[in-house]
Design brief:
Layout: E1 2-11, H1 15-27, E2 31-34, H2 51-58, H3 62-66, E3 71-73, E4 75-80, E5 83-88, E6 100-102, H4 105-118, E7 123-124, E8 127-135, E9 138-145, E10 150-160, H5 167-171, E11 175-176, E12 183-191, H6 199-202, E13 205-210, E14 213-219, E15 224-232, H7 233-238, H8 243-252, H9 258-261, E16 271-273, E17 279-280, E18 284-285, E19 288-290, H10 305-324, H11 331-355, H12 357-363, H13 369-379, H14 389-392, H15 394-407
The structure holds flavin-adenine dinucleotide (FAD).
GO molecular function: FAD binding
InterPro entries: FAD-bd, FAD/NAD-bd_sf, Flavin-dep_Halogenase_NPB
Pfam family, one: FAD_binding_3
Length: 417
């Protein structure tokens, strides 16, 4: 059996692992990335939010990604029957990026991996972590490649970016039920031959079919568009076991999109993701940290998944670097408490979306520009900005405003904010 020694081992080359690896490679520590699949591989998470651009930039991946010409995303549109609410990331409360990308993740993740390899990262595809043992802070990982060859990798720190692989949560019994109610999704891509020219064709949109059921439409620069349906698990299951029939049925429910997508064949058999929310009892331990979906995944409605993955990936990388260089790191406050602060904000907005309270605010007219700018900053991923009153008072702001709007239907709500 091969034996290797590294400073930091990263499991998984999705967005979380990629930004961690990109950042650490620049710092000159010895790292290794092991990735179970062969890229490109189909994966969901195609609508990004601006905060991720900070992470790709810091990880040295921005230029390579930008050169791919992915569709630029400047905001998002929420459709509910005749009502439309558009967020424009250039008009938000917090400073920061005002655009990002909407991306076929297969191509995007492949480009990140290729760029890491070009930068000299030791990234091994088709190599699956099958066991990890800890000896104090040092970890001993067994990884098996597709030929069945096993390698022992000793590392001073381990960052688990394995997404739904959830390597350490499973091995160390850290899985915990999510606080969110069970939702599921079905998605695929179509060749978007009926795409209108101009903004209407390229705008990322969420068509709300019922308070808890919505269709996503994510156009890509390669001419394909991702279409997905999200709802309570019972709703998605009732669409039927055949995912092609089920997604077709869902598209028929959208007055707005049925003409554009109703007759188009799917590029791949629609994928179903059942009860997708995940959580863990703790996000770190002696010699390891959990990031991205390996720790927590909430809900796709505000496209927060990749942002959480890259925020936690790059932060874990920075802290791990300090630790292997001999500094003491307070993982509780510097990592878990910080990450949980952002998770709490996103959780509130997701919960308030599904109660209908946030939708009440989105579609109330006239719009209150200050409220909208504050919420727009949250949708852009700036959930750690404590200057934003809608971050600080997230647990009350939306609920109270929606309550007041309902009580005073027909009245202005600017004086109430
Ligand atoms: C229905 C749905 C829609 C979504 N839509 C969006 C969206 O629009 N925008 C958004 O930002 N997010 C979205 N997400 C969330 C997004 O998919 C994830 O949050 C994001 O991909 C997490 O990145 P990651 O790097 O943590 O994990 P991943 O991208 O899943 O990468 C993990 C990698 O680890 C590898 N791995 C797993 N096990 C092992 C092992 N044992 N050994 C070695 N490697 C391993 C996997 O092969 C994989 O490549 C959505 C999620 C769902 C369920």
């Amino acid at each position: 059996m091969n034996v290797e020694e590294v400073d930091i081992l990263i499991i998984g080359a999705g967005p979380s692992g990629a930004v961690a690896a990109g950042y650490l490679q620049k710092q000159g520590v010895k790292i290794k990335v092991v990735e179970k699949s062969r890229f490109p591989r189909i994966v969901v998470g195609e609508s990004l939010i601006p905060r991720v651009m900070d992470h790709f930039d810091e990880a040295g991946l921005f230029d390579a990604l930008d050169a791919q010409g992915f569709e630029k995303k400047f905001g998002a549109r929420f459709i509910r029957g005749e009502d439309i609410c558009i967020f424009d990331f250039s008009d938000k409360f917090s400073p920061g990026w005002d655009w990002t990308w909407q991306i076929p993740r297969a191509d995007f993740d492949l480009e990140m991996a290729n760029e890491l390899i070009r930068k000299g990262v030791d990234l091994q595809f088709e190599t699956e972590v099958i066991d990890v043992q800890f000896m104090d802070e040092m970890s001993v990982t067994i990884a098996r490649n597709k030929e069945g060859l096993e390698t022992t990798i000793k590392a001073n720190f381990l960052i688990d970016c394995s997404g739904y692989g959830r390597v350490l949560p499973r091995m160390l019994n850290l899985d915990q039920p999510s606080r969110l109610s069970p939702h599921s999704a079905i998605f695929s891509h179509v060749r978007d031959v009926n795409r209108p020219v101009g903004e209407e064709g390229s705008l990322i949109s969420f068509d709300i079919l019922e308070t808890q059921v919505w269709l996503w439409v994510i156009p890509f620069s390669n001419g394909n568009t991702s279409v997905g349906i999200v709802g309570p698990t019972s709703f998605i299951d009732n669409l039927g076991a055949d995912t092609t029939v089920a997604l077709n049925k869902a598209i028929q429910l959208s007055d707005y999109y049925v003409k554009r997508f109703g007759d188009l064949p799917f590029i791949f058999e629609p994928r179903k993701l059942s009860n997708y929310s995940t959580a863990v009892s703790k996000m770190y331990g002696k010699g390891y940290a959990l990031t991205g979906n390996s720790s927590e995944f909430l809900d796709p409605v505000f496209s927060s998944g990749v942002c959480f993955a890259t925020e936690s990936g790059i932060l874990a990388a920075k802290l791990a670097l300090r630790q292997v260089r001999g500094e003491t790191v307070d993982w509780q406050s510097e990592f878990e408490d910080y990450m949980k602060g952002g998770i709490a904000v996103f959780t509130t907005y997701i919960q308030e979306w599904y109660t209908g309270n946030l939708q009440e605010l989105f579609y109330h007219r006239p719009e209150n520009p200050e409220v909208k700018r504050s919420i727009c900053a949250i949708l852009a991923g700036y959930v750690w900005d404590r200057n934003n009153p809608f971050v600080v008072k997230h647990d009350r702001a939306v609920k109270n405003l929606a309550h007041l709007i309902r009580m005073s239907k027909g009245e202005q709500y600017d004086s109430l904010c």
